[in-house]
């Protein structure tokens, strides 16, 4: 019975949402009709005349106070929106509307449902449904302790933005914790550790968790943030793999015993996949390429710039040493050359930003921990690690240079960071109301006349419609409806 009632409520909600989406005009006319029918009992005419008398009695001081207050409020909203955007990288109003208002109106948030599949490669089938043009955790991100901190020690600058680190903190809490962690002391400590902003506090909490039990996520945190070399990080990740594999096997046997065990199994799967991916990155950093490739093959990864451009490089390697644009234009492209050119075209179509970094037309920087798929940040992450591979293959960069510009006449600049709509809106609103406040203060009588004329013009269409309705419908319609 409960399921039937829930299903009926969901169906009713979907019908209401559909009606508001497609039949809003019908609803609008129905409301107008009801207003007309109820104008006598609700005394709408009397209220309108009262409002008209009220507007006529307003003094210029009222308009000065009104516009000044509106300007102040819109200015405060603008300052708050700008501060929130600089700190968190998004609009507060936009975030609230998407997170809280959109679900009430029947919207679906793909980020919440698919976020668990976007960073660690634990479910390839779910990943295919996720939009490619979104923020993903960089699968080739550097180690904070062994690599990012080295940059900080040398230059005294932070290599990661606050926004990037905030996204990483959200990822850690999503993938490395679950609701039942409070039942196990070590996991409860790590749940608090992932929420800590201070790196030293996180490291101390990880050591505290390891004193209680062999905790895979504690080893992960120490490998990422405390280890100062890749060799130390690999050693800690191997310990994490041993602990994580044991937790995964136990949770796999209990996953069907309830939602709590299912959540634990999902978390343990995410932890195990993350450890294997980072071990593969350690092997690659230490020069054990074959071992890294073997480990990466066990992890399902979605289509990316790395896959597309690596496939293009493998095809270009067979023909790049003897490729000549002049000779190709005279005799035409061979089958192998055509395959290489088409592979480069496919790669450039997937991410057109990469060639400029590989050809060193744009400067490289440290890759971030998060990238925008098919964007400039993904191009940086790819070129940072693979530029040396392209240079090692003779003629590969020459073939890329001769080929990539023919893919597009104009290379896209997406993603271009723009201010959120609500910041621009509040800025315009603040400027407009400030101008009105200034004009009202300088010319109060003139602005009062303008305000009254504006309001009368605004209500003119409504008055015109009401007059037409009264001329068409009989005067006794309300009495007939009350009888029915």
From TrEMBL:
Q: Does the entry feature the keyword Glycoprotein, yes or no?
A: yes
Q: What is its main location?
A: membrane
What residues form the membrane-spanning segments? 21-42, 62-85
Q: Where in the cell is it found?
A: Membrane
Membrane association type = Multi-pass membrane protein
Q: Which domain of life is it from?
A: Eukaryota
Keywords annotated in UniProt: Glycoprotein, Membrane, Phosphoprotein, Transmembrane, Transmembrane helix
GO CC annotation: what is one? membrane
Q: Which family does it belong to?
A: Belongs to the ST7 family.
Which PANTHER family does its entry note?
Answer: SUPPRESSION OF TUMORIGENICITY 7 (PTHR12745), SUPPRESSOR OF TUMORIGENICITY 7 PROTEIN (PTHR12745:SF10)
Q: What is this protein called?
A: Suppressor of tumorigenicity 7 protein
What organism is listed for this UniProt entry?
Answer: Propithecus coquereli
Q: Which gene encodes it?
A: ST7
């Amino acid at each position: 019975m409960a399921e039937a009632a829930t299903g009926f409520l969901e169906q009713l909600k979907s019908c209401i949402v559909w009606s508001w989406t497609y039949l809003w005009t019908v609803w609008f006319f129905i409301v107008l009709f009801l207003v007309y029918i109820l104008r006598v009992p609700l005394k709408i005419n009397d209220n309108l005349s009262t409002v008209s008398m009220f507007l006529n009695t307003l003094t210029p001081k009222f308009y000065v106070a009104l516009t000044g207050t509106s300007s102040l409020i819109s200015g405060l909203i603008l300052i708050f929106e700008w501060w929130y955007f600089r700190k968190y990288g998004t609009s507060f109003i936009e975030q609230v509307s998407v997170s809280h208002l959109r679900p009430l109106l029947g919207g679906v948030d793909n980020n919440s449902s698919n976020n668990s599949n976007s960073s660690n490669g634990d479910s390839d089938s779910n990943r295919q449904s996720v939009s490619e043009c979104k923020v993903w955790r960089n699968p080739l991100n550097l180690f904070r302790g062994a690599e990012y901190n080295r940059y900080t020690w040398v230059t005294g600058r932070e290599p990661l933005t606050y926004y990037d680190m905030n996204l990483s903190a959200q990822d850690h809490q999503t993938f490395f914790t679950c609701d039942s962690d409070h039942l196990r002391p070590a996991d409860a400590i790590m749940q608090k550790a992932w929420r800590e902003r201070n790196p030293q506090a996180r490291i101390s909490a990880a050591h505290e968790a390891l004193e209680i039990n062999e905790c895979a996520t504690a080893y992960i945190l120490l490998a990422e943030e405390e280890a100062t070399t890749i060799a130390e990080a690999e050693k800690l990740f191997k310990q994490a793999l041993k602990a994580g594999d044991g937790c995964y096997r136990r949770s796999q046997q209990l996953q069907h015993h309830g939602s709590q065990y299912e959540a634990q199994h999902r978390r343990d799967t995410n932890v195990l996949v993350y450890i294997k991916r980072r071990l593969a990155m350690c092997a690659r950093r230490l020069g054990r390429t074959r071992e890294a490739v073997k480990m990466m093959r066990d992890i399902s990864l979605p289509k990316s710039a790395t896959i597309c451009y690596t496939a293009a490089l493998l095809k270009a390697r067979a023909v790049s040493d003897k490729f000549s644009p002049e000779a190709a234009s005279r005799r035409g492209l061979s089958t192998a050359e055509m395959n290489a050119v088409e592979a480069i075209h496919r790669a450039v179509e997937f991410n057109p930003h990469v060639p400029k970094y590989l050809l060193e037309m744009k400067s490289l920087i440290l890759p971030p921990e998060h990238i925008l798929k098919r964007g400039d940040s993904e191009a940086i992450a790819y070129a940072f690690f693979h530029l040396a591979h392209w240079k090692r293959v003779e003629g590969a960069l020459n073939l890329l240079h001769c080929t990539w510009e023919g893919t597009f006449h104009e290379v896209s600049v997406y993603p271009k960071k723009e201010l959120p709509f609500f910041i621009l809106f509040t800025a315009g609103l603040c400027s407009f109301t400030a101008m009105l406040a200034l004009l009202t203060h300088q010319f109060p009588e003139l602005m009062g006349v303008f305000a009254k004329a504006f309001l009368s013009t605004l209500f003119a269409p409504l008055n015109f419609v009401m007059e037409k309705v009264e001329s068409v419908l009989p005067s006794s319609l309300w009495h007939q409806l009350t009888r029915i």
